[in-house]
């Protein structure tokens, strides 16, 4: 009888069936050739004597459950298959640490540059799509990344300079409506926009706003909020509360860059020194009893005084007296109405409100829309109010208006003898305006300059309205006019 050998556990059932079929086929072929059953001859030649174990069974050993043993193939086939299975198992088993170490190449000492690179901190970032960590980080670094980032952020917070509110100079609590501001100015700006509140400055729209005096003048405080760059569009009109900004902004590069100083702008220094003060109207002659005639007489006398003042002011602008005398006169004759309308609009600004304006001609003379209609100056009123709205939209400052006034003088379209000299004079004024805006508004200088330059087209419309109004007054002899005023008015009609 053929000896039964235990099968290897790695054999699968399909392999056993295939092996049995091959054995059966081989036995039949061998028997047919030799005429003797093959299994009997194989048994006689290959079977070793039976072996019996003398060791006692292990204590508490689990009982062996007999399992059916399939018919084995011949020893040569079994031995070959067993070797193949062992080889397959060896390929599937993972390499041991000692084997891996033996396969590694010999270690090469690192250069000083490589050592420096290896000792540097590992930098990584978080992917904005899925929040995964991107970069050369190990799992331990990924696990500790949040703690490390928080510690680094805390260190930067301690070292970073404290931001100040751009409106009042108090400590800023964050970026509100586009600029760094404190909670008080943020709440003030929000209340003003949501309530559509209109303020009026009791003085001359030039009140100082700081931490102690920020409540003194609401009109000037609101104008300064707009001037620093606070956005009306950022306020929710439906009073729905929004979330605060959670991420710290990078320090503004403009803080570390040199900016122009107002004291260094010679043109602005000259313009500020010689700007005429606000005039007071002279009383009309005693023989004038009609209210409209009284108003027109006071206005004509006021315009004559302002013309004298603007001529003396223009001569103080650096570069103006370098022009030929005829060119100086042509520039003044073609732009006097623009310059006077600009300063009238600046004095008449409402401080950010959207209500009707009163044109403030003098300390004791101002006209609303109805009073302007009564004297026939409704178009003049509308055009000057348009300039004032432009100035409010640009949140124009006094220094900027002085330079805009000089730019209106240099932007004349009059026929001159030396256009190249006028071009140099205009470029000089433009450069001074650019420097002044950069010094006054470091955070939004470009946008502010664009808004200021948009005032010039509105000034041209106001110029036409002023000349048309006073030409009608002079033609109809509705009020007496001084000689200088008449000459400047008639010069534009030639």
From TrEMBL:
GO molecular function terms noted in the UniProt entry? DNA-binding transcription factor activity; sequence-specific DNA binding; steroid binding; zinc ion binding
What PROSITE patterns does the record point to?
Answer: NR_LBD, NUCLEAR_REC_DBD_1, NUCLEAR_REC_DBD_2
Keyword Zinc among UniProt keywords: yes
Domain NR LBD residue range list: 263-492
Question: What compartments host this protein?
Answer: Nucleus
Q: What InterPro entries would the database entry show?
A: NHR-like_dom_sf (IPR035500), Nucl_hrmn_rcpt_lig-bd (IPR000536), Nuclear_hormone_rcpt_NR3 (IPR050200), Nuclear_hrmn_rcpt (IPR001723), Znf_hrmn_rcpt (IPR001628), Znf_NHR/GATA (IPR013088)
Question: Biased composition, Pro residues: where in the chain?
Answer: 47-73
The source's domain of life comes to: Eukaryota
Domain Nuclear receptor span(s) in chain numbering: 162-237
**What residue spans carry the region label Disordered?**
43-86
Keywords attached to this Swiss-Prot or TrEMBL record, sorted alphabetically, are:
DNA-binding, Lipid-binding, Metal-binding, Nucleus, Receptor, Steroid-binding, Transcription, Transcription regulation, Zinc, Zinc-finger
Q: Which GO terms describe its cellular component?
A: nucleus
Similarity-based family: Belongs to the nuclear hormone receptor family. NR3 subfamily.
- What PANTHER family does the annotation carry? KNIRPS-RELATED PROTEIN-RELATED (PTHR48092)
Record protein name field: Uncharacterized protein
Q: Where does this protein come from, organism-wise?
A: Manduca sexta
């Amino acid at each position: 009888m053929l000896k039964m050998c235990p099968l290897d556990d790695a054999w699968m059932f399909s392999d056993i069936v295939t092996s049995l079929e091959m054995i059966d086929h081989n036995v039949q072929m061998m028997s047919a050739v030799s005429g003797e059953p093959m299994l009997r001859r194989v048994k006689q030649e290959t079977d070793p004597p039976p072996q019996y174990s003398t060791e006692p069974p292990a204590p508490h050993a689990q009982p062996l459950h007999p399992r059916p043993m399939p018919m084995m193939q011949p020893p040569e086939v079994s031995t070959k298959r067993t070797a193949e299975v062992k080889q397959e198992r060896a390929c599937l088993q993972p390499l041991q640490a000692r084997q891996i170490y033996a396969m590694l190449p010999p270690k090469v000492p690192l250069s000083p540059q490589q050592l420096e690179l290896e000792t540097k901190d590992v930098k990584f970032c978080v992917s904005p799509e899925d929040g995964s960590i991107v970069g050369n980080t190990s799992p331990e670094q990924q696990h500790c990344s949040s703690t490390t980032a928080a510690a680094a952020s805390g260190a930067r917070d301690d070292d970073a300079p404290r931001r100040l509110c751009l409106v009042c100079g108090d400590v800023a609590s964050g970026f509100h409506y586009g600029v760094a501001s404190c909670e008080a100015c943020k709440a003030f700006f929000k209340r003003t926009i949501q309530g559509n509140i209109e303020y009026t400055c009791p003085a001359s729209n030039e009140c100082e706003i700081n931490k102690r005096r920020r409540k003194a003048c609401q009109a000037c405080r609101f104008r300064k909020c707009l001037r620093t760059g606070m956005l009306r569009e950022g306020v929710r009109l439906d009073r729905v509360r929004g979330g605060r900004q959670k991420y710290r902004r990078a320090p503004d590069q403009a803080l570390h860059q040199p900016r122009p100083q107002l004291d260094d702008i010679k043109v602005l220094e000259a313009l500020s020194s010689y700007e005429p003060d606000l005039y007071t109207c002279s009383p009309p002659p005693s023989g004038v009893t009609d209210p409209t005639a009284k108003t027109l007489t006071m206005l004509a006398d006021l315009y004559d005084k302002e013309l004298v003042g603007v001529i003396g002011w223009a001569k103080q602008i650096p570069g103006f007296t370098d022009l030929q005398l005829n060119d100086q006169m042509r520039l003044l004759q073609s732009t006097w109405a623009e310059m006077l309308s600009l300063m009238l609009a600046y004095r008449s600004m409402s401080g950010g409100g959207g209500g009707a304006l009163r044109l403030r001609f003098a300390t004791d003379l101002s006209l609303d829309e109805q009073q302007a209609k009564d004297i026939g100056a409704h178009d003049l009123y509308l055009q000057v109010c348009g300039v004032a709205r432009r100035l409010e939209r640009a949140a124009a400052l006094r220094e900027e208006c002085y330079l805009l006034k000089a730019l209106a003088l240099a932007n004349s379209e009059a026929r001159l003898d030396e256009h190249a000299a006028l071009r140099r004079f205009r470029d000089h004024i433009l450069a001074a305006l650019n420097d002044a805006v950069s010094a006054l508004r470091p955070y939004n200088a470009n946008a502010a300059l664009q808004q200021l330059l948009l005032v010039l087209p509105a000034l041209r419309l106001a110029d036409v309205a002023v000349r048309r109004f006073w030409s009608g007054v002079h033609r109809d002899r509705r009020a007496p006019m001084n000689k200088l005023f008449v000459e400047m008015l008639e010069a534009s009609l030639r």
